[in-house]
Write a structure and sequence with these properties.
The chain is 41% helix and 14% strand. The protein is an alpha/beta fold. The longest helix is centred in the C-terminal third of the chain and has 26 residues. Helix 7 packs across helix 11.
Length: 374
């Protein structure tokens, strides 16, 4: 099969998929609108605003005869443009017999209202993150109409798309060297973040400051580092703290384990049930100090966790494991498309404005009639 992974390489997940699919004998390309974040792999960088247009991108994709269009972040190749609605390429691709797979990665499908109600340590309690739930509903309805398969990258997000397949996050392990846990009297504790409030960085820093009163440790807080620099920092650490909010291990925890380091993150029971052998050490803001004290006071356990982490990632989050699941999804029988709603591709904001203007016009007409009766 020939597979297109587009329009964004989220958390380097397309890289892992492409590597695994290539090893299975398929051809996979990664196309990215704009520069790739963190220098992740991109086979073709697209900048239609300055060098071409979206129609040329779609034409090229069709000319290259991809069998599968694997799309990410609730987007397709085509935005709303020149009077055409968003994602209008989806019905076209389906009519042409192309396989459409859409992968959701979190904020593109997660609803703030549910997250706040469901999780006492929701990062929405600590971070002002925009969440347009009506837009999520609109795009999901459109994707449901034309996609053959949908996936989520966390079991916690399956509640928003119950029919989606859980596709675990993965790594191209050839890019990660596992080294023995350092045996040193002063452990290095690393926390890396790009959005402090979503990870609980302020809470982490405050607790680590208190721990330094009882343990001789070196604390490193890395913000906004390139991927190359981040991997260098992980290799120098003993313990890598990903987050205390949310509830699932992210790519950072997988990277730490792949390199033989202890990963710390808040892990909810639903995730543990799906991955019972996951050696990520779970901690929330209330338990973090005690969890860290136990780790810092037990070097043999840190060594065991480092070894177990690499084994776990190889077994459940490798490019090979991901590719085998994707291969099956790409050929799985899918139901026929459903008839779309008349406003199937309109974002909610314009619809709300149009409705409001229509109501205002009717009210103005009513007021005018009443005045004429006087």
């Amino acid at each position: 099969m020939k597979i297109l992974l587009a329009p964004s390489n989220v958390a380097d997940q397309s890289t892992s998929a492409a590597v695994g699919l290539t090893a299975l004998g398929h051809e996979a390309q990664i196309w990215n609108y704009g520069a790739s974040p963190n220098g992740f792999r991109v086979d073709r960088q697209l900048d239609p605003e300055s060098t071409a247009d979206y129609f040329a991108v779609l034409t090229t994709a069709l000319e290259e005869e991809f069998d599968v269009f694997h799309l990410h972040t609730a987007r397709s190749l085509m935005p709303a443009r020149d009077g055409l609605p968003q994602m209008w390429d989806l019905p076209l691709l389906r009519a042409l017999g192309k396989r459409i797979v859409v992968s959701f990665h979190g904020s593109d499908i997660r609803k703030k209202s549910h997250h706040l109600e469901d999780d006492p340590w929701s990062f929405y309690r600590f971070a002002d993150i925009p969440c347009d739930e009506e837009k999520i509903d609109t795009r999901l309805a459109l994707i449901r109409t034309y996609a053959h398969v949908m996936t989520v990258s966390s079991v916690l997000d399956q509640v928003y798309v119950p029919e989606a397949t859980y596709l675990p996050k993965s790594l191209d392990l050839t890019a990660y060297e596992a080294t023995p846990m350092p045996h040193r009297s002063r452990p290095v504790v690393l926390h890396a973040t790009r959005r402090r409030a979503t990870k609980g960085t302020d809470l982490i820093e405050a607790e680590l400051l208190q721990l330094q009163n009882d343990f001789d440790i070196e604390v490193r807080i890395v913000e906004g580092a390139s991927h190359v620099e981040l991997l260098r920092q992980i290799a120098q650490a003993d313990i890598v703290i990903e987050k205390l909010l949310g509830g699932d291990a992210g790519v950072l925890s997988l990277e730490a384990m792949a390199m033989g380091r202890v990963a710390v993150a808040r892990i909810r029971d639903e995730v543990r049930a799906r991955h019972p052998s996951m050696p990520v050490v779970s901690a929330n803001p209330e338990t973090f100090r005690a969890v860290m004290a136990d780790l810092l006071g037990n070097a043999p356990r840190r060594t065991e966790l480092g070894v177990a982490g690499r084994r776990y990632v190889e077994a459940e989050h490798s490019a090979t494991a991901t590719a085998k699941l994707l291969e099956e999804l790409y050929i799985r029988p899918a139901p026929r498309g459903t008839r779309p709603h008349p406003d199937w591709a309109s974002d909610p904001s314009p619809r709300r404005l149009e409705t409001a203007y229509a109501r205002i016009a009717k009210l103005e007409e009513t007021v005018a009639r009443l005045r004429q009766r006087r």
